[in-house]
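Predict structure. Chain length: 208.
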Amino acid sequence: MKVRNSEVDPVTRLVEALKKLPGVGPKSARRMAMHILRSPAGPADDLAERIREVGRRTRFCSRCKNISTSDPCGICSNPRRDRRVVCVVQEPVDIAAIEKTGAYKGLYHVLHGALSPMDGIGPEDINIESFVGRIEKEGFREVIIATNPDAYGEATAHHLAKRLKSLKVKVTRIARGVPVGGDLQYIDEATLKEAISGRRNFGSGPEN
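Prediction complete.
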């Protein structure tokens, strides 16, 4: 007989909820649950309120798909950003990493993932088509592909370059300094700044 969710003890339900977070296994989930239980009520209540607040106040920007409290987001609506250039990243945290370098002043587009056929993630599962639509509508001159330099990020980069081949847009890829297999969010600011500044042509498209 299937046990109803209301009949499961609260600790088990908390552990099961924490296990749904990326990179959290059963042991880590139980440790976090025990930490929450041992903490005073104040911090636990504050954590719960912060989670509820995120759900109430945040949304995805309709243009770039970044997480924001407004639509369009602050970057898309900023008149001082260079609207001729757009940088494609895998996750919202990558935007934060690039912004810290101060080396980039254009716009962004978040894919929310990378191609992974073995996991059943294809082009239709990430924000590729919406990005192609933006290029056609907003008339970007350059697309900087800043997906992670691992197998999934490289596969996504090559798919994007191929998908953009028919459009009259320069396609570049972040360059030297980024270690193979790394995630942008964990790369130091100086290295990432060099990678943005030293980007190279990628695929076909106008050279200038």
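Summary: The longest strand covers residues 82-89.
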